[in-house]
Design a protein that fits this description.
The complex is a heterodimer. Chain A is of the alpha+beta class. Chain A contains five helices and 14 strands. Chain A is about 25% helix and about 30% strand. In chain A, strands 1-2-5-9-8-7-6 form a seven-stranded mixed sheet, with helices on both faces. In chain A, a hairpin with a 2-residue loop joins strand 12 and strand 13. In chain B, about 10% of the residues lie in helices and about 35% in strands. In chain B, the strands form three sheets. A four-stranded antiparallel sheet of chain B has the order 1-2-3-4, with helices on one face. A four-stranded antiparallel sheet of chain B has the order 5-12-10-7, with no helix packed on it. The longest helix of chain B has 13 residues. The chains are: A alpha+beta, B mainly beta.
């Protein structure tokens, strides 16, 4: 059973546990509509049966092994044009939470995959509702591979227990992550967007390294940052190019 | 937690596919289970106060449904001359439906009201449901499904 530590300020004061469900984001959205879910509320399950990744993709999770939960935030102070800040906030928080395990190996693969040594250990799916040019609600879905041992080879995924050869306590990890989310949230709320941004870039997978990419054709380039809209900036032999999500593939 | 909230919760569960929900707040722990052989409207509810018992509702079976009232339409016909636009609040990819299998949020001829979702803009793996700020009738959808849109680009023409 999950229990939120007392030092956590507002996330998880409402904790809704579902032994199983299709997707915590879908349940959170439904509960929000019905007025059941409050700001900071968490919907968490031990068995997510049809978790969603990016549009059309599913996120496969074994029973009782992983952390799969959604948080409702109401980040009214973020304008829709700055919504990428939410991706930065959550991915930085997760990497910070995992850094106690290994300072240098956890990275954020743009826009928001959590990687360890090239293997995906976590994913984020954020769904906002935009009302009158502000972000009214943000449902933040987080999935972390924790104690699951086997993965389909094709996914290039790994779990914390794969990596560190020991089981992990799901509740401690949950608390560490939401503590970090609160911290990054308050950084952003107090207007320090630039701090969040540099925290994100500091942890960005393949930053300032030469690699092979694919976008219509194969090419060599170096990720040098992201633009305000969150587009990936890559230095190529034709100069600096910007990419939307799905316009570029990482090769090697 | 107020009785109304508990009732909403039970209503929510009865309409969902879930069999069991546990909710914990600083004040209460509530566990609701749906029995498969009981009609959908009833749910067993156990309330165990952990802190302040001040406004704890009595444990028991609640089998009330909550009616959701929808506003009666009150639109008036107006000349189609001064059409209004719904514009994109961000750069991203425009989607007319929640996912490829679902029907579009709105189609030409549909009446909309403020707060109603009209489309999704995906931006860098963030999915943004865009809600209408105005009421009226959708005249035209100006962008094709799954195509890129710019900030402030008109997406819909609305007859207010």
């Amino acid at each position: 059973m999950y229990k939120i530590f007392e030092e956590i300020q507002f996330i998880g004061k409402q904790l809704i546990f579902l032994p199983k469900c299709r997707s915590t984001n879908d349940m959170a959205a439904d509960m929000l509509k019905k007025g059941v879910l409050k700001e900071g509320g968490i919907v968490i399950t031990d068995h997510q049966q049809a978790g969603r990744g990016q549009r059309g993709n599913t996120w496969v999770s074994s029973e009782n092994k992983n952390l799969t939960f959604s948080i409702l935030l109401k980040p009214h102070f973020i304008s829709p044009t700055d919504s990428f800040a939410l991706n930065m906030l959550v991915s930085v928080a997760i990497v910070n939470a995992l850094k106690g395990l290994d300072r240098s190996m956890f990275k954020i693969k743009w826009p928001n995959d959590i990687m360890y040594n090239g293997y995906k250990v976590g994913g984020i799916l954020i769904e906002n509702t935009i009302q009158v040019a502000k972000i009214e609600n943000s449902i933040i879905g987080i999935g972390i591979n924790v104690n699951q041992n086997s993965f389909d080879y094709l996914f290039k995924a790994a779990s914390l227990s794969n990596i560190f050869k020991r089981p992990f306590d799901l509740n401690n990890l949950l608390n560490e992550i939401i503590k970090q989310i609160e911290e990054q949230f308050s950084i952003l709320k107090s207007g320090n967007y630039h701090i969040l941004r540099s925290n994100y870039l500091e942890n960005l997978y393949w930053l300032n390294e030469k690699h092979r990419f694919f976008s219509m054709v194969e090419f060599t380039g170096m990720i040098i940052g992201i633009d305000p809209a969150g587009r990936l900036m890559v230095e190529t032999e034709n100069g600096i190019e910007k990419f939307n999500f799905k316009e570029i593939k990482y090769l090697e | 937690m107020k009785i109304k909230e508990i009732r909403d919760l039970i209503d929510f569960i009865s309409q969902s596919e879930l069999n069991e929900v546990n909710i914990e707040t600083t004040d209460f722990k509530i566990s609701v289970k749906k029995s498969p052989d009981i009609s959908v409207n009833s749910g067993e509810i156990m309330v165990s106060p952990t802190n302040s018992p001040a406004n704890t509702p009595a444990a028991g079976t609640v089998s009330e449904t909550v009616e959701i009232k929808t506003d009666a339409s009150e639109e008036k016909t107006k000349p189609a001359s001064n059409l209004k636009e719904i514009k994109s609040p961000m750069i991203g990819t425009f989607y007319t439906a929640a996912n490829p299998e679902s029907p579009p949020f709105v189609e030409p001829g549909d009446k909309i009201k403020p707060g109603q979702t009209v489309c999704i803009i995906e931006a860098m793996k963030l999915f943004n449901e865009i809600e209408a700020e105005i009421s009226g009738t959708i005249v035209e959808i100006l962008v094709d499904n799954a195509t890129p849109v710019e900030f402030d680009q008109p997406l819909f023409l609305v007859d207010p």
